[in-house]
Amino acid sequence: MSARQIKNRERIIDELRKELVGPAPDGQPLDTLEPIVFPTWRDSWGPWRDRHTGEEILTRDYPSKRYGIGVLYPYGAEEMDDDQRLDEAGPDSAGFIAKESDELTEEHDERFAEKLEDAHERLSASLRDEAPEDFDLSLANSYRPSSIAISFLAEFPPDSELVVEATGGRYTAFNVDIQESEFSLEWWVRHPVSLTARFTDEVSCKEDRSFVSTGSQIVNGTSIGDAGPIDLRIEVYSRSSDADGRLRLITVCLVNRTHGTAYGDESCLFQSSFRASVVSPDTNRLILPYPEAPESAALLDPEEERLRLLYRNAASIATGARSAAEWGGLE
Q1: What is the pTM of this model?
Q2: pLDDT at residue 126, rounded to an integer
């Protein structure tokens, strides 16, 4: 494959990631810390990005509708049916809300009712399964996942550490006024989230089977809105894989432990991912090939035998749960 082909492939992957996972910051800067008023609807057309952080601003859809991959919902969040979604979302989900005013005329009331009915109809149509043959990205999160995890085999010599670095983004809503209209727009601005946890070899290897957890949130920026912090945790399950306990089968989880019976977008973590590494003063080759289940050669069919032969030098290092695992720097 030529360098140009590789570059084109990387560009396609990057665009797909922006479309499905996000974020995709673009457009003119907008000061979200000050009241935002546009003279006309046309002046509000974007795209826009946050002036202070350069982060993405969503102007058309709420975050969980815009992105269907890499979302961690509050722990225990229940799936809502179509009617519950309409009651919960209301006209805000259509991108506008009515301004508070005692001077709305009867004509304005009728226009508001028409737009509200149209918004509900459009939202109902998007929620109904009118075309089952079409791929609906929103179904990717129908189970409301609250965690992602990877498992790998690692060696823990003395003074070694397991380092986990998690990243993601939160979205908070804010209103935008249009002078020529009685409606306000509801937009969403992204705030980056990062979380780092370190586990010493004594903690990771303290028992034959052990569990450790840490939880805190570090938000880059001056404001994260009024929703408050989410309970984001890194949890590690450790199991012994040899006699002296230095080889451990590790499962690292990133969990949104925010409690709630029904999820809200401001309590979700978007673009969720994390990186795990085992570091030691003496060596950095501490993550080993993932152990395979013992299988008798007589139980393998011809295709499995061919695959084992073909990929005999391509070891699998990790396996993911609700996530895809990739690795590097292990040669």
Answers
A1: 0.77
A2: 55
